[in-house]
Design goal:
Layout lengths: L7 E2 L6 H11 L6 E3 L5 E3 L2 H15 L4 E2 L6 E3 H8 L3 H9 L6 E3 L2 E5 H28 L12
Antiparallel strand pairs: 1-4, 2-3, 5-7, 6-7
Helix pairs in contact: 1-2, 3-4
Length: about 150
């Protein structure tokens, strides 16, 4: 179900009833525990429970889940695809130091953790820019709060 090659957990591999039952169980905090074959009960730590509950909820919604370790290394093409940009633009970001990378032979590799950090930084910068632009438009009196878009 979860392979090291794809890291993809496909909900179609489980019966709908089974996923629905699991979703009900995980909807109740502190109701789920691990029990081994000898009946020993183990509490699931809250942080892990939250992740498991989210995985079960997504799968019950028939959405596949991909699990990725933070230190997973991406090729430049895979990383560019993830960020939605061209490979050359991505390589330029690496070469100017925007995103850390390491080499495997002559090939560049980027960790998933570093991709996520760049993505957060990029999104934060975009939001701040849009906020500044909105403030400038309002300050210039160009914002019409009554505009409905029907014109």
């Amino acid at each position: 179900m979860l392979t090291t090659r794809t890291n993809r957990l496909d909900p179609s591999l489980f019966p709908d009833e089974e996923l629905a039952e699991l979703a009900k169980l995980f909807a109740k905090p502190d109701q789920v525990a691990l029990i081994d074959d000898q009946g020993n009960r183990t509490h699931i730590p809250e942080a892990l429970f939250a992740h498991l509950a989210r995985i079960v909820r997504l799968m019950a919604e028939r959405r596949a889940v991909v699990m990725m370790p933070e230190d997973e290394a991406f090729t430049t093409q895979a990383a560019a695809n993830y960020l939605g940009m061209s490979r050359q633009f991505f390589v330029n970001l690496l070469e100017c130091g925007e995103i850390p990378f390491h080499r495997v032979g002559t090939h560049r590799r980027v960790t998933f953790k570093d991709l996520l950090e760049y993505e957060r930084k990029r999104d934060r910068t975009r939001r701040e820019g849009l906020d500044r632009l909105t403030e400038e438009v309002i300050a210039a009196g160009k914002y019409d709060s009554d505009y409905t878009g029907d014109e």
